[in-house]
Design goal:
- The protein has a domain of 156 residues: YVTN repeat-like/Quinoprotein amine dehydrogenase (Methylamine Dehydrogenase, Chain H).
- 4% of the residues lie in helices and 45% in strands.
- The protein contains 2 helices and 22 strands.
- The strands form 6 sheets. The chain has a 4-stranded antiparallel sheet, with no helix packed on it.
- The longest helix is centred in the first third of the chain and has 6 residues.
- The termini are far apart.
Length: 305
Amino acid sequence: MSDPTSSFADANPPHTRARCARRVDALGSTDSTSAAERPRRQPGDAGVSRRPSTSRLQELDHPCRIRPTASPRPHHVHATAGGELVAVGLYGTDRVAVIETENDTLLGEWDSDPLTTTGRVHAGIFSQDGETLYLLSDTTGQLIAMLPRTGTVLWSMEVPGAHEMVVSHNNKTAFVSRRTFNQVALVDLESHTYDDVLPISLPDTLRLSANEKLLTVGVRTSPAQLAVVDTETLGVQFVTLAPPNTGTTTGGHQWTTSNGQFTFASYEGVMSAGLVVIDHRADNQVVQRLPYAGAPHGVTHALPE
């Protein structure tokens, strides 16, 4: 078997493999602009990704690019709490790429199941301590636990329709969106069992507040909405993201502040698309709209440099 890190070495000769400050978008491309050249981010900044067209992808040409060999479709990107590791689901395969950000090293393109090639890793989510990487294969309905630095598979369990997840702070439970089954499940990561707890149409991204009393669920339905969940009562309130009379819209992904007050949620549409800010302490009202042409899809918090 070939060296899983060889693609990084081939694509990045020694003089370009020096550490560079880069932004990784939802499709795995990187911006090699130096930190000194970029505007300094503020602690409250959020970053938005959108789905580039094929022509846009062909225009991207950065010297510090990590090129996975297993898949032309790097998909969802998730990082450890401290940002030391980044996981990229290699959509269309049963593999995940894990990158060490300190020196921009591709640790490996880890195989979640060497016995089959029918898996499709949609996302890789780290435990709170960064010691475990959880993979969700939506075609095989598997949740797989792996050591992120070696690719060693620890265990796997069946969660049909598993798509995205968020791990509790004690690393014992997790909410998992079973998108094609229109359910959000609560998974016991110790007993490897799950129960459906929330019937929601096409649930996607999941975010928890620091006190774990608030859960936000991205919903891929039309019109664009976000589900806000009280985790103690499991009561749900749906927030409409797009303004009225703006045509067909679809909800994207979201980021919720750790104090649980605000959620930044993206939505896609032809007549209307952008990012909205929801204030949960004001009865989940939309308090700001940020137009963003095209197809805004993902949003996350930018840590100050």
